[in-house]
Request: fold
Amino acid sequence: MISMRILTSVLALGLLLSECTPKTDDSEKNLLAAALALAANAPSQSAFLDTYSQIAFQNYSDAYTDVVALRDKVTALTTTPTAANLLAARTEWRKARRSYLQTEVFRFSKGPIDNPALTNGVELEPLMNAWPLDEGYIDTVILANAITKQGLIDANGGECTGGTCPDGDTAKNISVGWHAIEYLLWGADTAGNTTPGTSITDANFATANGSGSAAAKRSAYLLYATEILESHLLQLKNAWDPSHSTSYVSKFKASSTSFENIIRGIARFSGGEWGGERMTGVFGGEQEEEHSCFSDNTKADFYYDAKGLDNLFHGSYTGSKTISGYGLKNLLGGESNYIGERIVTAERFCLNEFQETVSLNQTCNSSIIASRFDTMIATVNSTQSADYKIFRYDIQPAVQEIAKALQRSAANFGFSIGDDGLVLQ
Reply:
């Protein structure tokens, strides 16, 4: 956080300039205004950073706990492959995504999720949620090589080239993380299909053996990939744990750049990743561009990304433990209501596309996207459905407007945010 000594010095300089010059020029006025704003906002920013760190710790704790539950279901499937165990693993994958997706708002803020300097030189995010992936690459890893944990980690990364790339696209050679696990559980989402992947059944699994049959390798792959994801979430949980003397959280709260990094990070996530690459990717009508195309979980992806920002905006979080504190809305001045309205718009998804358990479904109304995401995408190149219009002309622009509003807000805190890393339209 910016120290009061620095703020006092800047304020004093601004006052000195205003007193020594009969008519201050614009630069002097701006300096004085910036100093006054910084001084006024310092305590509030400190309160927000404290709430942010509490939410981060609790959110990552819940995500870790949920993936432990997923690993238990995967262990049951890879020990005793049955249709019931496959169904249970798929359901648990969906449930675990709900907590993890809310953590994505912490990205691009120079925190542990994407700063390798804080995680023993290894950038974790590409090992956890990278996409789109090349199914052919995963199949080659499964069928042609012995499966080991380190081998899966080493195989992750790089661009797909050659005939295995889906739809001739440049997907990534991804071997671990949420979407690799997703593919192993559901299989490919074929063109024109309006359900999750259907090519995988319990017959595709056998007792886990990294050098056994194709089915045994699939089981070993699935189990190892889940265990890898679990270990990475544990690292992130520990990084935000205030009870660990060597954790990141104490440095985060003391740093003079943390608040600026957060605003930049949220702007980049909203305008580049979430509202940029992920949402604009489906405008061409290609199912392969869905963020969670194999499971058809994409509506939940977008909803819980919005929920993650909602948590920080209001300074509250509801999970295994409830957090209530100081929200970003209290710092953004005239942009606060504008951003709050657009977060509400970004949440206009009815999560009714789950097939694994009806308990995950919501009752829909016409004001939010009610149809399956695949069905919605299929209308892009014909008569656009009402749901697609909500997505294309209301939700996606609202997410990008959040980034633009944060760009405007930054000036109130003495810094600026350019368009680098953003996909603004």
